[in-house]
Amino acid sequence: MGALVVVEGLDGSGKRTLTAALTAALEARGATVASLAFPRYGASVEADLLTEALHGRAGDLGASVHGMAALFALDRGGARAWLGGALGGHDVVLLDRYAASNAAFGAARLHQHADGAFVEWVRELEFGRLGLPVPALQLLLRVPVALAQQRAAGREAEDTARARDAFERDGGLQERTGAVYDELAAAAWVSPWRVLEGTVDVDTVAGALLG
Length: 211
Prior knowledge:
Rossmann fold; dTMP kinase activity; alpha/beta; nucleotide-binding; globular; kinase
């Protein structure tokens, strides 16, 4: 059975870049790797509803913190069979976002902390009721909020298909989400965490994952 490793962080923190770099480093060491990004935009009804809500095209859906969180969770629930197959056939399964994103953003929207009721609700929903596999390790890619927002804005300017959504445009939300992420990591929420900041030595991280 392979190891489920999750890359977490704010919008614009560099999760996609890190996931690709880790995949290459792990494969260079002879490991088999599968990867997936959540939400699965274009691949699930739940994810498509989420993108509509985040861009103001789904009425008042986006205003419901629990409603949005349920859709994020159900999108992952729809990938449970894929996750099981990938873990059975690969050394490492890398995920760009997982349940902790749901916990961090939702708690931040409600002005709660990691020890609040919302985070516990997400844990029970995703790992209890939906039965999603628990990560072996969660990597928190920590960057300053201002830098993450600058990157997101630059990405939007370069590619109109990647227009920032309501969460990405809300600097206050990103700030609070970063604080909740730090709390989740400090509490080792659900499974062990490792915080990465500054220049990440991808080869060292890859070696630790296989060690």
